Amino acid sequence: MSEAPTVAKVADRSPTRESVIVLSILAILAAVAIGYYLATTLIPTPKVGILRVQSQVGSILAEVLSREITYLRDRGDVKAVVLVIDSPGGGAASGHDIYMQIRNLREEMPVVASMDTLAASAAYQIGVGANEIYAKPATYVGNIGVISGVGQPEVLSERFITTGPFKTTGGNGTTYLQKLDLLHADFRNSVVAERSMAFNPLTMTPDQVATGEIWIGIEALEYGLIDHLGSQLDAVDRAAELAGLRNYEVVDIREEFFALLRETESAQYEPMAKLYTELESHVDDFDITKAEGARWPTFYQIYIPLE
């Protein structure tokens, strides 16, 4: 009887279940790695930016902050701002300018103020433009009021002719008192309006707000002039929380903006260097009793402890 021919067995080269699983895992890991790489390179890490009000409030500071705010808006990766304040206040017009800038900025991203040693007068008004305010227990807060000199008396002269009795003075003493009252009411009303809707609402009456008194942080929290007692780091954490950030970096907007101008040799570098130099050399002492009075009429929102 003849034997059946032997049939050679061909090795089964189809992938095993285990190898398919391993390849799938490797593919997933590779996709995750590529996705992470693209996310970190193409999508920048969100930032919390630091803006600083750490000098007298004046036209130079208003100009500097205007340029820094424009810069942080243009970068796109700054998602929240902490406004660090340590200032006695200053010129009323400049204080209003910065206050309005901060109010506009908070419409685009969370802004949290962190008040350091002193946030008085115009500096405090700037702070109430933020979404929330942090201060230390010993921070000086408040001094809500306005200072003005009286208009100079009309002086007859054979060299000049004016078209009205107040062309060279702007008004008499009574009109300057009226203007002072209007600005005082505007300052008071802005604080009352902002703080009445705050996280820690105002508990003082408008008349109590407007006395010009300075309170320490512990009192300011009780009266609703601030929202929290805490450090600058606490303010950063809160700003990130309001922006919905979990992983983020903290950047000093002034340092980064100036470094960028220096590296790119931008035409803005020299003008900004001059502004920063003037800001840093700005004299903090303001003596209302000196000949500076010749600059009147000028309105100030500044804390000046008179001897």
Architecture overview:
It is elongated and about 110 Å long. Strand 1, helix 2 and strand 2 form a beta-alpha-beta unit. The mean pLDDT is 87. The chain has 307 residues and is α/β, with parallel strands linked by helices. The strands form two sheets. Strands 1, 2, 4, 5, 6, 8, 9 and 10 form an eight-stranded mixed β-sheet that branches. A three-stranded antiparallel β-sheet has the order 3-11-7. Helix 2 runs parallel beside helix 3 and helix 2 crosses helix 10.
Question: N- to C-terminal separation?
Answer: 132 Å
Please outline the major beta sheet: 8 strands, mixed
What is the number of E strands?
Answer: 11
Radius of gyration based on Cα positions: 30 Å
> pLDDT average, as an integer?
87
**Helix segment tally:** 10
**Beta-strand content bin:** 15-25%
Helical coverage, percent range: 40-55%
Structural class: alpha/beta
Molecular shape:
elongated
> What are the segments in which pLDDT stays under 50 over at least 5 consecutive residues?
none
Order of helices and strands: HEHEEHEHEEEHHEHEHEHHE
